[in-house]
Design brief:
- The structure is a homodimer.
- By secondary structure, chain A is of the alpha+beta class.
- In chain A, 36% of the residues lie in helices and 21% in strands.
- Chain A is built from 16 helices and 18 strands.
- Chain A has a seven-stranded antiparallel beta sheet, sandwiched between helices. In chain A, strands 5-6-10-8-9 form a five-stranded antiparallel beta sheet.
- Chain A is globular.
- In chain A, 58% of the residues are buried.
- The model of chain A has no long low-confidence stretch (mean pLDDT 95).
Chain lengths: 447, 447
């Protein structure tokens, strides 16, 4: 039966076991479930063909970007077609005068910014991984720069989506604001391929800041670091990145990247400004604020290379941690809480790691109240990491927070949906049933 | 039959003809249709009582804030209950350390900012009118500061809504970001009371900027003004307001407010910064940019009073225009286009005003590509203004723009929904039918 897919899509279909396996795993979910076939789409027409085949054969379809998600979003739960967008990766048009760009869903964010370089503009959303823009919209990605530029909701102005029934919808407009009709664009952003399949995006761009100032500040403890973060947020300084790293994270980075950072809880900061004098003065204020909060040591990156090194360290942290804990499975938590509760939740996470004798590091987008605990366990002890996450999410929800700040619900976090959303969960399920009555689109995820 | 409402809600119900009339009109829609009764809710319980009564008696209910909307959002289309929130106006809790505030829907934005004054924080969304926060969320309001701080989508983190069936949903969380579940919060923002009734909001707050710099710049023509606006946007300067006013707007302001502004197309600008030196330097750059674009005259407001005067002029413009054209009806267009198309659409609007011999002024949030044409006509010629708006919206849509940047669809713009949304309109209608199968919630609006 699956062979008939070839009749429809020819060489775009792959049954190669290594290809299937690569589409049956993400960056963190521990189990591999290869799909029945992978289709490499190059056009909306291909997407429509796959959907009509899937409908006819009652087979689910799972959109696939870079496979860099972490919550099992793209793992089949039954025999399914993985619809890979890596070949549908054209930058369709740059509109520099509108600060917009139209892309196919398979374009990756680093390639996009590379292509934009000559325009003086950039796309700011930076989840660390070199994800596809389609995948980033599907999971509502954000990251280190969200404190200043927002995440995908704020930075996607237009989406083309194909529904289960083959309807092609154009959601949103290429404008900076609209109040026209129901906001379906933001309903589809973050819906993880469960309501429709994204086939085109228009994204917002920003002028590359003329002056960038990068700092690393080290503190005696996490409380002081969190206090400094709050002061920075309250100052209205043009902070573009505000990242917390705990002692163990710094140790792991020092070891893996041969750095000599002070092994203490740290804030990595970046300010974006439009004038040289402004940034000098802003950095003097930041300096004073972090000192008042108890900073032990302040390092200012003077050159672009030094800046690049600092953010490489932050972005490489996941892999540094993996290299430091070979032969393990890795689990990443993703809670976000009201800003004033960050210290409380971070402290709780650290105590829990100690109590449970788990090897874990805390890093996070502390300006947004969002942090990750990265845990390494032996495969046979993986359930301990799951228990840790469950306890942390429950505490986050008690503090008014969320189960997931930026990774999405996927498969792993479904069990928290009822606690977080209450009566709204049933309405989410009704929306799923409305758009996908036969359950063809990435079933078993989110709702 | 309507009298039984009193049994349920007592003194909260009004049949006073002047009260009914005040709830049967908005700021701009020309017809008055009084509701059958007005209920002044003070609690969620009251809302539930009204809904159950409406369900039993098959009578629509229309949430009412300040009546400052412009597109007929709150005008009954058949005998209906107007559910007034002006008494449900408590600021429930300020969370300064989280940059959040919880409010009831009847709180007005000026009162909110007054109450916040001692915290050093403010709520930025500023549509001009002193609207209620519930109404602003329902219509997805934005305004002069949206270019920097975003509109209601970005600044409401949590909504409590009551559905037609009495379900009470809590949408979103009190965090700066979440990727948990489908984004129903943003589906309800801008849904104009057609999907549910907002009974509580949590809003984002920002530190009051330490340094504010306000400029008025006059240009020989609109093209130069639009060019200057583009250069400002491309500069990455911390622009917080970027307003365009045409020659006639300035004349009207001079006449009504006894100002002596140069009667030429102008940009009114504001920059928010965190240091004194920064703002001096930023303003020097802005000065240079507008000169290169052809500025005739640049005025910098040095004192707070001068700043207040400038923005009073901008906000008072609607009433200045009304006073200058007594005995007329007034129509406000609300198109938004990609930034590069603003000059083209403004020029088209001006030519059309001349061709159609209409008295009209253009003002707008040009940094967001959104502008308004305010038209005064004799009552018997009102249809000319409607034709003007239709032609302007059609051109806006051709240019990739939207029928409404910030006022919403309401009643007036429904005819453009199909042209703007295509196949998505039918899905919006299905969502309406899902949440409100009996059509009790503000029927005849948006979809």
């Amino acid at each position: 039966m699956i062979a008939t897919l070839k009749d429809l899509l020819g060489e775009k279909v792959s049954f190669d076991p290594s290809v299937l396996e690569a589409h049956g795993k993400d960056t963190s979910y521990p189990e591999i479930h290869p799909p029945a076939a992978v289709v490499f789409a190059v056009s909306v027409e291909d997407v429509l063909k796959v959907l009509s085949w899937c409908q006819k054969h009652h087979t689910p379809v799972i959109p696939f970007g870079a496979g860099s998600s972490l919550e099992g979003h793209i793992i089949p739960q039954s025999p399914a077609i993985s619809l890979d967008f890596s070949l549908m990766n054209n930058i369709l048009e740059v509109y520099p005068q509108d600060f917009l760009v139209a892309v196919e869903p398979g374009v990756r964010r680093e390639e996009l910014n590379q292509a934009l370089r000559d325009t003086g503009l950039f796309f700011p959303v930076d989840p660390g991984a070199n994800a596809t823009l389609g995948g980033m919209a599907a999971t509502n990605a954000s990251g280190t720069t969200t404190v200043r530029y927002g995440g995908m909701h704020q930075n996607v102005v237009e989406l083309e989506v194909v529904l289960a029934n083959g309807d092609i919808l154009h959601l949103g407009r290429s404008v900076r604001k609209t109040s026209s009709g129901y906001n379906l664009k933001d309903l589809f952003i973050g819906s993880g391929g469960t309501l429709g399949i994204i086939t085109r995006l228009v994204l917002r761009l920003y002028p590359i800041p003329a002056f960038v100032h990068t700092m690393r500040v080290f503190f005696p403890g996490l409380t002081e670091a969190a206090e400094a973060a709050y002061r920075i947020m309250a100052s209205a300084l043009p902070v573009a990145r505000l990242e917390l790293l705990d002692e163990l994270s710094i140790k792991v980075i020092n070891r893996d990247l041969k750095r000599t950072y002070l092994e203490k809880p740290a804030l990595f900061l970046e300010f974006h400004s439009s004038t040289g004098t402004a940034i000098e003065e802003e950095s003097a204020i930041a300096n004073k604020l972090v000192r008042v909060a108890g900073a032990l040591d302040i390092n200012v990156a003077k050159h672009e290379q030094e800046r690049a090194d600092q953010w490489e360290a932050r972005h490489h942290f996941y892999w540094a941690f993996v290299h430091s804990n070979p032969g393990c499975l890795y689990y990443t938590t993703d809670t976000a809480v009201p800003i004033s509760r960050v210290t409380e939740l971070v402290t709780y996470a650290q105590q829990l790691l100690t109590e449970m004798r788990l090897e874990g590091s805390i890093v996070g987008h502390v300006g947004d109240g969002n942090f990750h605990t990265l845990i390494a366990t032996l495969p046979e002890e993986y359930s301990l990491a799951e228990i840790f996450s469950e306890l942390l999410v429950n505490r986050s929800l008690e503090l008014g927070g969320t189960a997931t700040g930026e990774h999405g619900i996927g498969l792993v976090k479904r069990k928290f949906m009822e606690a977080e959303h209450g009566a709204a969960l049933d309405w989410m399920r009704q929306i799923k049933a409305l758009f996908d009555p036969e359950g063809l689109l990435n079933p078993g995820k989110i709702v």
